[in-house]
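Predict the 3D structure for this chain.
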Amino acid sequence: MKNKLTKILIAVLFGLFAFGAIKGNYFSVISVLQENVNYDNSRSVKKMQEDFDAFLNQLFIDNVSNDTLTLNYTLKNKKIYGLDNIEVSFGSADENEQHSTYSVYENTKATLRSFNYDKLTKSQQFMYDLAEYMIDINLESSDYQGYDECLSETSGVQAQLPVLLVEYNFYSIKDVEDYIKLLNLVPDYFKDIMEYEKYKAGKGLFMSDSNVELVVKQCSAFIKNTENNYLITTFENRLAALQGLSTEKKNKFIAQNKSAVINKVIPAYRTLIDGLNALKGTGKNNGGLCGFKNGKKYYEYLAKVKTGSNRSVSEMEILTDKKLKDAHKNISEIIAKNSKVYENAINVKYKYTKPKEVIEHLKKAMKEDFPALPDDINYQVKYVDSSLEESLSPAFYLTPAIDNYNNNVVYLNGNKKYDLSKAFTTIAHESYPGHLYQNCYFYSKSPAPFRSIVNVGGYVEGWGTYAELYSYKYAGFDKETAEILSENTAATLCIYAKADIGINYNGWDLSKLTKYLSAYGFNLEQSKTVYDSIVSEPANYLKYTIGYLEIEQMYQKAEKKLGKKFTPKKFHEFILAMGEAPFKLLNEQLDKWIRQRLRMCIWKQWKKVKTRYKNLKKLGL
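Done. Predicted structure below.
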């Protein structure tokens, strides 16, 4: 039977970055000055822990102060960290500066290793492991200079920057002043990007012609209506909440903003278009990453970075194939028992269709399976401007400042190709119990600021996807329909991940991809769209699929080992409290959590303390 698979709706959790920070993926330029801390290994336990906290805090400060966008989206109260008068900047995209950055990473790693691991608290040890992982990832990136692409289809600068600018936080009048300065720096920022693209072209790593056409089309759509560009039309309303803003000052800001958009931002996009068109035809590879020299090695690196998984690409492919096979089997078994379920799933109608209605329903429905959030969590639902509809995903969650985490924004894309009346699970992915809930739960626990600079896409999008599939049980369907829809979405994820690996690692061309996808009902045009998307953003699908499968495996491990003592709510509480981390570290913590819960349960079976210790030791707990 030919499978009719629902279209996977990909959501973007916006990484808040400048191009200089993209290059390193996790840290921007780190300049931890060793003379600021006494790195004597004979320090007392208390001193060692205090110095380690100071070290982590310096990493955080260096990261968020590297560019104005990152700073604005990370902190509301910048003065606490002495960052209220940082020079306005997009960060550096200079290729030469990246070489010095790697030296900084080496020095930072040496500083990290000066701390006695055994003298740190359990929480600090976990952050030590995180910092070491991230530094190593960044150092490894030095082998692949010129391979990363900042102008990709959905997460590229040209697509993200307009949204990041229109949502730039105006906490004070100075924020508005900095914002207008930032607008005036866009031409230089794009000039740096084009210099990097020329560098890529010189190394034979420039994008394919089809990707050039896609990016140019996005840029052209954004600048089409100059006078009514939404950076202009939304600006006055954004000033409304500012306290102490005189009418004279307000009108001055409005005029400055309009001038900057018309005379700086839009011309910068035109220059970017001209620059890309001039380089068109210099791309040496129209296919996946494996078509470049050392492209397969880079894809292995990229898969590791984007997923946070320590599995090899081949192991990821095996895991994906197994899940796809299991999903097909489960779907077939459900249909065999009740043939009407298939028709129900194909012609499904959601009870809740309005975004806010969906979110409020999910908040109530999920209470039994997920830990509670504080009562002061707020959110807004906004719609993508029409000029950006073609280039952005169906929905995304915009992460708030860590000291303002209770104010959140979920964006929906009203493009006619997306049916928002069926966006129930997509909204779940972005809001509750997905990204909004995930982010708010973690920051409600007051983690160290350092944790905000940790970026593991597989954990973030894996949870969003997990939440999306979990939400089918809250959609008002019967159990079988909810299950078949969930399995169908999981199967679709696996198909896209398989295609990602096939194109970028195994060298599939369009013909081979079309043959593979035709078994799942894709026509040539749809296959071409998938192909171009995967070539534009290699390994993007993996963070959703592999991230989800890693979380699913953790769930199954905990459920198997804890048996009747397992509850979804406690598992969710554990993984949400851990926050972003690679799955190797998460699994190590999961094993400790399982042992602790078993100890707690078994401890109560014996009355005498001596008997308790003796029997727990026998059990290896």
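The longest helix spans residues 247-279.
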